[in-house]
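Subject: mismatched residue count in predicted assembly?

I count 229 residues in my input, but I want to confirm that the predicted structure covers every chain. Input:
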Amino acid sequence: NAGVMQNPRHLVRRRGQEARLRCSPMKGHSHVYWYRQLPEEGLKFMVYLQKENIIDESGMPKERFSAEFPKEGPSILRIQQVVRGDSAAYFCASSPLEVYRGHTEAFFGQGTRLTVV
Amino acid sequence: AQTVTQSQPEMSVQEAETVTLSCTYDTSESDYYLFWYKQPPSRQMILVIRQEAYKQQNATENRFSVNFQKAAKSFSLKISDSQLGDAAMYFCAYRSGQNFVFGPGTRLSVLP
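Triage response: the counts match. Full output below for your records.
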């Protein structure tokens, strides 16, 4: 059972370009979380998705950022017109459907480090 | 809203000694889970230990143990016989339902 897969591991974009970050959850996991980690800081929640639904996007900036988790394929975090301040590590985590079935923790991918130049 | 606080931005411990990392949280829920994650320089997030709130017994995993004080909403991590490989960022996390909240992290250095 492969873990959470994120790609690319490193992404360099010029200011004004678009960044697309991909996350394939663990097999059987239907919940995906995206977090942002600035240098020397902790994880900041961005968005929580289930298949085809955004459940909680309270941590997402109102502009330029969007996320989706389609019925087929990976979850995508999209950042339009990137700025230097978007440079960070973006982590995806997945978890199974039900907490009370004994699987409670989120499993993390290795992150995508976005650098905006 | 739930919050998780880690009041120690940085800690250091001598190799083979014991260190305790602090974590407090705020919630009105009675049923929840608590976790400690480790993030080494590789950036991979690794689950260290977890605690179910309904269990009074403190969780242990080899050299790692927790002191869970539900009434005080405290969840500290004790690392015994510290090793150089324990050096990392440590994040305390809270989960209730599908809501996952992380603390700001504590950077642990292990001195040879």
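Chain A has a mean pLDDT of 89. Marking this ticket as 'not a bug'.
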